[in-house]
Protein 1
Amino acid sequence: MNPTDLFTLPFGALTNEHVTVVGGKNASLGELYNRLTPQGVRVPDGFATTAAAYGRFLEVNHLPEPLAQLLARIDPETFEGLQEAGAEARALVQAAQLPNDVAQAVRVAYRELCAGRAADVQVAVRSSATAEDLPTASFAGQHDSFLNVRGEAAVLAAVQRCYVSLFNDRAIKYRLQHGFDHLRVALSAGVQLMVRSDLASAGVAFTIEPETGHEQLIYLTGSWGLGENVVQGAVNPDEFYLFKPTVRRGGRALVSKKLGDKAQTMRYAPEDDAGGQALRNTDTPAAKRQQYVLRDAEVEQLGRWCLLIEEHYGLPMDVEWAQDGLTGELFIVQARPETIHHGRRELRLHEYHLTEKAPVLAAGKAVGSQIASGVARILASPAEGHRLQPGDILVADSTSPDWNVVLKKAAVIVTNKGGRTSHAAIVARELGLSAVVGTHDATEQIQDGQLITVSCAEGDEGRVYAGRLAWTETEIDLETVPRPRTKPLLILADPARALQLARYPSQGVGLMRMEFVINNAIRIHPMALVEFDKLQDAAARAEIEQLTARYPSKPEYFVDQLSQAIGFVAACFYPRPVIVRLSDFKTNEYAGLLGGRQFEPAEENPMLGFRGASRYYSPQYREGFRLECEALRRVREGMGLSNVKAMIPFCRTVEEGRKVVALMQEFGLRRSGPDGLEIYVMAEIPSNVILAAEFAEVFDGFSIGSNDLTQLTLGLDRDSAIVSPLFDERNAAVKQLLAQVIRAAHASGRPIGLCGQAPSDYPDFARFLVAQGIDSISFTPDALLTGMRNMAEAEQALAAALTPAPATALPV
């Protein structure tokens, strides 16, 4: 037999069936090269030394007996003597000589690898261990690899150093802990063409989302230089999410990307005495930190390769990729099964109960159900936001959209003013926080810097206690939550929570608020981007230039950021519907965006002014609305997320509805065909109820906005503390309108749902809506489970009421 065939095997001859011959890592590399290269996946070529070559090395150098004696001195329980025995064992192996036949086989294989390429090509030499009688044993991470090795002598030296690494202290300890016989474990050295990612970038991809196990997403990360920084978590890398069904269809699958700081770049240091190169981290230049390591097309290519690898192996995979800085080519350099998730992990939620009491400093309406302790930080305005540290409890008179960045740092929010529909309450729910609103005097009764406990776990009233109190926390198994026939949907604003919330037992998203994305991620008034050349605010111009620096045009910044946010949410919930409400800022809120004041009128009552549908077709905002529509079109047609539906807020007249729908069609949003866009309208103005049949001719469905409908029915300002006690969705006038619009929608064959807090707060209100036959109810995440229970109980009560009593026999 040719010694080359006995002691080395090319990747083209290896598959996963050769684990006992070349170890798991090299068998996997061979499988990739052999099976995936014909499908277009680029894998660096190479060869592997065999277990027989390692056995020959031990035999010729008479190493088995002295190695066995040395390793027998180590206490298998306490590991006493490990360092001394390991050092002597490594010295023995390093001092030995590669047998001539093994060395010649490696030389021949290396020359064949160099054939047709530059002489003495650079290679990576990696260790791959195996046990013949335990072929499934994993020795991942126990042994050494050597990068950028060049020339026959250096390759031979690196192969022997791989043999030496079999006796690293960590590898010896690993074998002792797992009961492996040291001399029955063999070492194979994989010699693979070097990808010069030190001159470009490298990273890791998972074919499922690694935190939640979401099966429809591919998660990819990357940083400049060698991939070790990413693998070891030493840098904050760029992140990319791809929607797997669109990858499969060959469409634009990149739904979200996030720029990492990539503070360090791992490169090669000067050559060491073995011909390889040591590694060193250098500071990444500022310009490269602000640049993505991959172009969108390259991310898409890696996504296609990852999907092919997953489909070939038939299970989720952990994939390492690298880009060659000399050629610009992308490569897959390793793939292994993903070991954390076997399907999605079960989601458990938590309930809280105080076990101690203390003086109540302030009380108000409870938002959420959590208990938290922390330092109180009293802030007069967002300008003092720097005083709030992560984990502090924010105490303020009230909040507005200007506070959003500050609120994200808070553990809990406490305000003097506001009710359940105030800005502080809404944002707290969207951020997954608890809040106590409408306390009247929290800023007076609580001292800045005081340690307090805030409880929203005691019913309708939220309380602020002095000191740090004890509480208990109980897990809830979602399998025990009843599933009502009425569809439970979610209200969602922050896309960052989509992965977590997609695991809740909802049937989709009934309301995704576009304003949150515009206010927090985009931050710029759309018209300031469309008419940037006319923008007069010099400070705003400078900040906008900085935010949009990576984009070919100012409007593209808006479309890209918005489409990523919507696309990510839609991908997380796919195929469940996601209803996106188009922007519903009031003029004072729009004016607060960068460059916004120049494009917004000053109104006495913005709540009833230039908002919703009226803005969209107005010459003052028409081109801004075009950007919103382009983002939706990109999500649905480019990303393939046809589960996205659009919703028009505050549409006062039927004619106004027709104008907006026609404008959306003009802006490229197609309604015809099996995957055509469905457009809903908010039923939040009495005119929407009175003319519901006419609105149903224009729109595909209704969503009741109970907050605005209650406000406009009762003629009160829902943010006014003076009249807030009158705000009640259960008022007879409001309920009459609700019943009327539900009947009209169904008579027109249109679905209708409701977005609001009341069905979770008030079981009687949930019973009313179920009795009227409403199709869905949308809840904030903190209220979903309570709302589902209320709906299920309402359905049971309704069924019992409709069931005729059993007949009784008449007396004879």
Protein 2
Amino acid sequence: MIAAIKRNENKVFTSSDMARRMDRISDAFGLKDQTDDSFIRNLPFMAEDATAGAENEFQAAVAGKRENIDLARVIETSNYYRNLVEQARTGETPQRRVVALERLLKDKDGKDWENSWVWFPRRVLNRFANQVFNEDLKADKSISASEYRRDAACFVFEKNGENQVRVPVSYLLKLALADVIGDNFGVPKPIKAWGEKMLAHFSNDNSSPELFSFYPVKSNDSGRLGGKLAGETLMRFLLTQALVAYAGHKFELNENGQKVKVFFSATPPGDQKRLNDLISDAFYRELFMSPCLSGWDRGEDKKEYMSVCHKVLSRSQINAVTQLKEAGIINSNLVVLPNTSNISLANNGTHISLGSLKLSRFMADPGSGFTALDEKYTGDLGIKIWEHFLPLFATTYSAAPHRLDFQSFHPERVLGFMPHELTHTHLRMIWRRWKKKAHLKIMGKSLTPFGPVWLDRLIANIFWLKGDFVPDGRLIDYFTSVMSTFQSPALNGSLESEADLKKDLTEMGVFDGRMALYQLVRLRKYYQMGYSGFEHRYFSVFEDVVRDMGKAADLQVLITALAQKYIYSRQVNHAMIPDTPDVESERRQIFFCTAIGVPTFFVKTRTRNQFLAKILKNTAKTRHSRRYAGYTRVLVHEYQRALISLIQTEAPDLISALNCESILDDLDNRVNAPKTHAAWGRITQGILDGSGKHKPMSMPGRQFNANAEQYYGQTLRKAHVRQGFDLLGTAFEQIDLWARYRDPSSGQALGQILGSQDMLKFLKSMRQDFIDETCAPETLKKFIYLMVLVISRDMKSWHNA
């Protein structure tokens, strides 16, 4: 009984509690009794206070003949494959399963094998790279005498009488950097020292390579940091391309028929989905889950954690079928059961994290009066405010255009994890509008696929049912944000809210208490992360990293500062945005409608969400719904315009202080002319270029999605490389003066790398060869040294700040 009372006290804040807490926090920050101008300057996340970093998830592929590719070799030599063949021979398993798997392997021959590992002779690694590899094979890297992991034998094998190493591409990048900086022949000391610090940033826990910022960027006195963050991201991307090229030569990958590519691509590859439909969940994990060699002291434990995530997500998608039936979306027992293996962890996105130096400083000082509970209380409220602005970001700054054919339009497939993210009411509304958007009707009667693929294709051909086009397929195929329960809201400001919700969801079979709570915007707690701020997890692919990612980050800072203004000026409190599943779902549905391209959504006319009501009060072209009594019909486009108007009306002081006038002008163009200015429009045009088609719906889904994969891996990858070179040229101009006159050790390193050769001339001479992938190995090594030197300057500035 006492425990229950304590738990409830931890959850409920009265109006007087809120007022007293905010008084105390404002006192701690020096925000009470300030002039308007001083109040704005002292808010967290304002000019010179905001910091940002990014984690980028890349798509990796290895092109080559079937006999040279690790993924094909592992499948063909596995007991799983052999047992399947034997079961088919004895009639225990349908022969078509073996035929389908064999056809897939044949189709991939000579093409890209997404997320395959690579193999190479161990002798090609120099002493330092070997040392790094051996260290990462330890069961516990914090113990110098630790034994090897139990699965250490998975990363080595023998071929042609020679020891070979086999690792995922994510780890290949780290080994390549270790090999470059570990060269015994004249590696400059600063390059070696800073290169070793960079190794820890090559870390991944999902299928694809992940790389997080080498250093946070900081807003200047004008408040803008987006350009810096985009530049830092492009430098990491360009370094990644150089390491791929270096490994191709030095590790004899090219010689052994393995061509590695790393690029931005958000949705799981079509052929990997195909393979997932043919194998078990356990075998899928064996083939694709990261071994977590880098980034964690106990990598094997982290690998097991990722297996838990995959099992839970696979179970959750099956549980979603029951939710759809309870929601009335599935009205019979005729369903296409999802595979027991879920592929959503192969989604790739970019996470942008914003930090506040002020909040972090106050959290570090026990005498500041700002506690972990205060951080959670204000952070949760900031997130609730923030979620109303998410429709400004989905599809506008990043996107993952995707085509769905009619035969794919089973609700249990296309609605993904939304049954666990939205209430049944909003789920039904979205599904009805989505079917209308996709024109899934025959003679006025709504129709979805029956199940047998041959029948669905026949119906689609006879009645010209083409399916649909989705501006951002990643956001509907990934568990972006779990929904709170009635007893355990996630964002009510109490310290135990997340743990309580995870417990409830675990009991419901939706989640696992060991997993991090999935949220679109996640609080970064000082005692966990070393800084206080927010992680934004909804970005897919940036068509132009500077134009899209940079401006998105600047807008994030502005909206975060606006949320702080609302909180500390007492304009918005927790009670105004109730912590109930229906209110939570009501605001998040708008985000999903934006990602799908559904043009309208419905809100209770007397919604209890006062902040949402405030936005809707100034939203044009709303009307009472004729279908849903007590609801108001709202256009997504008009809601977006109302958000822009709200920012302009209520934050002119912030806009001026953060120099964001041009950011809002750009946002206005993205919202009002999406086909030419929004990310989804530009990426879609890039996918269609050269196809002879002008609209996504004029192309079969499988062809459009295949064209998209080719566009990401070829056209867009090279465009991002060119962007990186443009920025690097500017950086070379700056570092040449800096190295020669302000940092003698860097000047000496520059002389060791290039001798008397000019940096800019070197860059110009090798740029096209690099883009054409014909750079000589020695040139690549020099280029990597120079990139480490350029990046180290900013790393050093951050560490010395």
